[in-house]
């Protein structure tokens, strides 16, 4: 087990009982009179994953001293929204493998995946209304809308080899980091924290989510397939210009740029080995990890406003160890 795996495991062990509380809410709220809804929902939620977004909400609640029941409800809401985006994502990306097994669209077909994703979104909105707090509803409604915008933005950027670093970061901040940010902010709202603490929580979530995705994009060219549970080169196959490729194109020779450009524009992976070599030889992977490191430091800085306890220590570990992530 890597240092990063152990630090994540230690953080999750801290909230094991809370995660069980969330799981009870999930099981209860996934019930539907339509069998296929329950079947597809259970399939994707049973796939596991680190569940970092609800874990972040629950750790932040611990750090801020909030122990109310509503934390289970909102952790489940966050997981439902994330799961809905995964269902829709895999259809859009035509993915066949996630977390080492067939995606829901591969197992049940695209129509079922899209419609069950809609069910999860709408169930999440029913549940957030039950919190009876306009700020909570505003935070989640805005996050869901920004994520949808990020998805469309990414679709527009497909096969675009001229995408800039700023354009890439805009997609990440919208598509991935926004739900991390909302999860952390929700804890502050539940704890009725000061505006300063709320902002720090949101900043931490956004920075952590950005670092997480940047490292994820590194692993598409430098990961362990058996541990990642997805295929190397998936991003390139989908025509995504991620940060390792953007930097490699900035630093490479004209011939190397042309090789990467053609691969992005056609979604071709025939030259995958050559592209991995270019990305490594230009120092693009190291530069991308440096970009993730800058976000991790931003996350650590944001924690300074929070009370010091075992939960905030765990949040600190999550940010500092993220850089060693290998899958």
Automatic annotation (TrEMBL):
Chaperone is among the record's keywords: no
InterPro entries from the UniProt entry: Isoprenoid_synthase_dom_sf, Polyprenyl_synt, Polyprenyl_synt_CS
Metal-binding is among the record's keywords: yes
Record keywords: Magnesium, Metal-binding, Transferase
Documented EC number(s): 2.5.1.-
SUPFAM superfamilies named among the record's database cross-references: Terpenoid synthases (SSF48576)
Molecular function, one GO term: transferase activity
Enzyme class: transferase
Pfam families linked to this entry: polyprenyl_synt (PF00348)
Membership in a protein family: Belongs to the FPP/GGPP synthase family.
Protein name per its UniProtKB record: Polyprenyl synthetase family protein
Phylogenetic lineage: Bacteria, Pseudomonadati, Pseudomonadota, Betaproteobacteria, Burkholderiales
């Amino acid at each position: 087990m890597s240092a990063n795996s152990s630090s994540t495991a230690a953080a999750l062990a801290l909230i094991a009982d809370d995660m069980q509380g969330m799981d009870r809410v999930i099981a209860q709220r996934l019930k539907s009179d339509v069998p296929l809804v329950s079947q597809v929902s259970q399939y994707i939620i049973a796939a596991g994953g680190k569940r970092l977004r609800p874990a972040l909400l629950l750790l932040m609640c611990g750090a801020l001293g909030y122990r109310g029941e509503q934390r289970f409800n909102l952790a489940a809401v966050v997981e439902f929204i994330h799961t809905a985006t995964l269902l829709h994502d895999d259809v859009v990306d035509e993915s066949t493998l996630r977390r080492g097994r067939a995606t829901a669209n591969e197992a049940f077909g695209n129509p079922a995946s899209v419609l069950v994703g809609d069910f999860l979104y709408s169930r999440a909105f029913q549940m957030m209304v039950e919190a009876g707090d306009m700020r909570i509803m505003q935070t989640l409604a805005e996050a869901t809308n920004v994520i949808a915008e990020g998805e469309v933005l990414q679709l527009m950027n497909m096969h675009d080899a001229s995408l800039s670093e700023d354009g890439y970061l805009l997609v990440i901040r919208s598509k991935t980091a926004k739900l991390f940010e909302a999860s952390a902010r929700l804890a502050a709202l539940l704890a009725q924290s000061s505006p300063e603490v709320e902002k720090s929580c949101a900043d931490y979530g956004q920075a952590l989510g950005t670092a997480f995705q940047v490292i994820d994009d590194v692993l598409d060219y430098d990961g362990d397939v058996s541990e990642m549970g997805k295929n190397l080169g998936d991003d390139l196959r989908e025509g995504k210009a991620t940060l390792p490729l953007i930097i490699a194109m900035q630093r490479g020779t004209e011939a190397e740029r042309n090789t990467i450009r053609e691969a992005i524009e056609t979604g071709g992976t025939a030259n995958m080995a050559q592209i991995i070599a270019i990305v490594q030889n230009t120092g693009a992977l190291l530069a991308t990890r440096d970009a993730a490191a800058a976000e991790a430091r931003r996350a650590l800085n944001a924690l300074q406003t929070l009370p010091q306890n075992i939960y905030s220590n765990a949040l600190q570990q999550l940010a500092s160890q993220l850089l060693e992530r290998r899958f």
